[in-house]
Amino acid sequence: MKIGVFFLYTTFVCGSSSTSYTRVSENLITIPEDIPADTEIIDLTDNRIARVDSIPYPLPALSEIDLSDNLLTEFPDFSDCSNVSVVKLKRNSITHISADRLNILTRLTHLFLRYNSLQTIPDVPGPGNTLIELQLHGNKWKIMYAHPARYKTYHAECNEA
Predict the structure, then answer these.
(1) Domains identified in the chain, total number
(2) How far is Cα 52 from Cα 31, in angstroms, rounded to an integer?
(3) pLDDT tens digits for 29-80?
(4) FRET pair for 60, CA 20 to 30 Å: which of 74, 79, 143, 158?
């Protein structure tokens, strides 16, 4: 069920290249099924999405997904989006990250998990050590297996005990 779906589909042109960008923010509870197949960036911030078991259709060009400010309690399943390099999950209620779900993202370079309810996190170098930025601050850490020296940018300050 979708509530108040509003779709804005825009193509940004930068020099000789273009990026297809889709932004949807209207109290969605699921990922919409009508996102254009050539979309490279999906911005689903400020919705009511509580769970992502999978992306319901192939998006081969997708490189960035933003699910910040939703109701997620677990790390989404991006198994159908292996080309994604940027994942933004800020200000949700994620309590757990499965290493299996993280390892699916073989091209992951930037992972934003600020202000969730994480207490532990698996060692997350990413397959092939592709992860260069990891933002973890504002969580409730008990055990952290991430090694800061592996990342170009690493933010974990201001965590709650």
Answers:
(1) 1
(2) 8
(3) 999 888 888 899 999 999 999 999 888 788 889 999 999 999 999 999 998 8
(4) 74
3-class SS of residue 133:
strand
Q: Is the pLDDT of residue 127 over 60?
A: no
Residue 143, Cβ neighbours under 10 Å: how many?
Answer: 7
Short-list 154, 126, 159, CA closest to 143: 159
pLDDT in tens, 41-54: 999 999 999 999 88
Domain that holds residue 3: 1-161
pTM of the complete model: 0.80
Q: Which residue has the tokens 């933004």?
A: 88
User: Which two tokens mark 90?
Assistant: 């800020």
Distance CA 130, CA 155 (A): 17
Phi/psi at 33 (nearest 5 deg)? Answer: -95, 0
Q: Which residues contact 100 (CB under 8 A, 6 or more apart)?
A: none
- Whichever domain contains 56, its CATH number is 3.80.10.10
| CA distance linking residue 44 with residue 83, whole number of Å | 18
Query: Which amino acid, residue 161?
Result: A
